[in-house]
Amino acid sequence: MDRTELAAFLRRRREQLRPADVGLPPGARRRTAGLRREEVASLAAMSTDYYTRLEQQRGPQPSEQTLASLARALRLSDDERDYLFVVAGRNAPSSAVTATHVAPALLRVLDRLSDTPALILSNLGEILVQNRLAEALYGGRTDYKGLARSEIYRWFTDPEERLIYPEHDRERQSRALVANLRAAHGSMGPASRAGELVRALLRESAEFARLWERHEVAKRFVDHKVLVHPQVGEIEVDCQALFTEDQSQALLVLTAAPRTEAFEKLQLLGVLGNQRFEDAR
Fold first, then answer.
1. What is the rounded end-to-end Cα distance, in angstroms, of the chain?
2. Contacting residues for 147 by C-beta, under 8 A, at least 6 apart
3. Could you give the 3-state DSSP secondary structure of residue 165?
4. pLDDT at residue 280 above 50?
5. Contact in structure between 120 and 242 (CB atoms under 8 Å)
6. Strands 249-255, 118-122: pairing kind
7. Closest CA to 149 of 187, 184, 121
8. Rounded Cα–Cα distance for residues 201 and 21 (Å)
9. Residues 197, 152: contact at Cβ < 8 Å?
10. pTM for the complete prediction?
């Protein structure tokens, strides 16, 4: 671990960012350039004291998980993320870390979307990051572990996962998820995380096995759908997806036409915030 270089790299990247780059308001007049240490710590879900010690060459060696959080908070490119791992004394990022590192270009767009639900997900249906309104609409979806990180896996193994869709639309959603997974499986191969997910679902879900045999392939989202929120009921939204060049990640933006009931419900969600769905069921 090169403490001097790690500290210098973190400090320089922090100083190069502005609040608007990470979706924060400008705030009061700043005495120094860039983000404050407490802002980076908050974005990386760590204590300000821990982050400060890293910049002051006093902190313990960060874990892979901590480094991945810092890379996301500082909006690092893939090369910058790899360099961060090296100077922190870690090996090249694991495949799991690499797969969940959010594309900086998508993250910059997400940072500017504060008035409508938006989220970034992988081609395996793993929600990597979501804004405040997406969390209010879907609930927090970024803390799952293992195979359950994939909404595809949860859809076929956890009945509660389906409650966000009206009953009449669940068959379509099942087919769409399987078709998306087959597309990912085709590009990533049977030895990949996609292959692991397919094998697990073939064992655990007869419905998935039936739909997998249809050999449907798709890489798109429904343009218009109805979602069900436990507090405000059904919400009609339009969906737009922006993909990375390699199609491995997508920014999904959900909107409703102004002055409609759905628009008002999304505004209400902004007021309600992220109330636990379990309390309303």
1. 49
2. 153, 196, 197, 200
3. coil
4. no
5. no
6. antiparallel
7. 121
8. 39
9. yes
10. 0.74
**Contact of 17 with 104, CB cutoff 8 Å:** no
CATH number of 104-280: 3.30.450.180
**How do beta strands 249-255 and 127-130 pair?**
unpaired
Mean of pLDDT over the chain: 87
The pLDDT value given to residue 30: 67
Kindly calculate the radius of gyration of the chain based on its CA atoms and give it in whole angstroms: 20
The C-alpha atoms of residue 24 and residue 53 are separated, in whole angstroms, by 23
7 token code pair: 């500290």
Write out the two tokens for 193.
């995380």
CATH 3.30.43.10, applies to 3-100: no
The domain spans of the chain are 3-100, 104-280
Determine phi and psi for 176, rounding to 5 degrees: -65, -45
Q: Token digits for 10?
A: 């973190």
Instruction: Using CB atoms within 10 Å of the CB of residue 269, give its burial: 0 to 12 exposed, 13 to 18 middle, 19+ buried.
Output: buried
* pLDDT at residue 192, rounded to an integer: 87
pLDDT score at 119: 94
User: What's at 267, amino acid-wise?
Assistant: Q
Tens of pLDDT, residue by residue over 31-49, are 666 888 988 998 888 999 9
Torsion of CA 248, 92, 110, 225, to 10 degrees: 30
Which phi and psi (to 5°) does residue 97 adopt? -65, -45
Least confident of 58-72, 87-101, 124-138, 226-240: 87-101
pLDDT for position 276: 47
